[in-house]
């Protein structure tokens, strides 16, 4: 399935096997392409615990 990266607006692909893996582990689908995710990891941003990510403000 094809997704658009939130950061750089590049298209990136989630393979079927990746999707199954994500679903099995209850991991939400990534919104960033591989490159941006790698960058974030390098910068030390903890993307696993971003609570204010989906913009559900009250
Ligand atoms: Zn990107």
Written account of the structure:
By secondary structure, the chain is an alpha+beta fold. The protein has helices spanning 16-24, 34-43; strands spanning 2-4, 11-13. The protein has a two-stranded antiparallel ribbon with strand order 1-2. A hairpin with a 6-residue loop joins strand 1 (2-4) and strand 2. The model has no long low-confidence stretch (mean pLDDT 83). It binds zinc ion. Zinc ion binds at residues 5, 7-8, 10, 32-33, 35-36.
Key features?
alpha+beta, binds zinc ion, two-stranded antiparallel sheet, 58 residues, single chain
Helices, by number, come to 2
Main beta-sheet annotation:
2 strands, antiparallel
The total of beta strands comes to 2
Report helical residue fraction.
Answer: 25-40%
Q: Rough shape?
A: globular
List the helices and strands and how they pair.
Layout: E1 2-4, E2 11-13, H1 16-24, H2 34-43
Antiparallel strand pairs: 1-2
Outline of this structure?
The chain has about 60 residues and is an alpha+beta fold. The protein has helices at about 15-25, 35-45; strands spanning about 1-5, 10-15. The chain has two helices and two strands.
């Amino acid at each position: 399935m094809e997704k658009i990266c939130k950061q750089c607006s590049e298209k990136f692909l989630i393979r079927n096997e990746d999707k199954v893996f994500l679903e099995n582990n209850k991991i939400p689908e990534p919104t960033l392409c591989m490159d941006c995710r790698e960058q974030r990891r390098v910068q030390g941003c903890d993307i696993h615990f971003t609570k204010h990510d989906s913009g559900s403000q009250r």
